[in-house]
Structure formats: structure tokens, C-alpha cells
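Moderator note: this is an archived Q&A kept for reference. The question asked for a predicted structure of one protein chain; the sequence and the answer are reproduced below.
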Amino acid sequence: MNKHDVMSKVIDTLNCKCPNCKDGKIFKDSGNIFLLKIPKMNDRCLVCDYKFERETGFFFGAMFVSYALAVAQMITCLVVFWSLIDFSPLRVFFIIVAMAFLLSTLNFKLSRSIWIYLFYKAKA
């Protein structure tokens, strides 16, 4: 696999595109964190009919991916706002809580997209 293929996969994963045809979208909508609305997934790709949920409970593992994304974002906020900008610990705590809230729908989408791509096998 060359660099172009890897980069293409990363971009498709971040854009939540179907791993099979690269054209269809995994999600129907993007959700709205302020309305407490999580993004809705398509059951199948609207372009190639690829089934996203391979089995019941398939996305259980995506929670661990979401957790890893959230932890990375929180550590980044901690380093930037406490170490580099020198905010007080209480202010950093509130910034981290706000960032976790604001990025929750993005993490939901990305974690499921990453999970789908991790287990996708192209048909030969």
C-alpha cells in the first residue's frame, strides 16, 4: 500500500465515506450537540448498498475509539492551556469539560467511521 492509498483512506475515514465505494455517506445527518441530537447513521450505503453494521453490537468497540479520541483531546487541552498558556487549574478544567461537550458528536461520528474502516475488507 503506497502513501497515496493510505492518505486517501484517512481522508475518507475523516469524511465518514463508505469504505466500499468511497462515495456514499455513513451518516444521514451530522447531529447537533446544542439540541442534544446525535448523528443518525445509514444502515446501508445509499450508493453501493454496503451494510455498515456487520453484526449486532458491532459498534460496541467504537466506544473505545471514542474514549481514546476524547482522552487525546483532553490531554491536548491540558498541555496547551495549563503548560503553555498557564491558565489556572480550575479554568483548564472548565475548558476541558466544554471541549469534551462540544466535540462529542464529532467523536461519535469519527469513532464509528474509524471502527468501520478497521474491519473493512475489500472483496477480491
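Archived answer notes: The chain has a mean pLDDT of 90.
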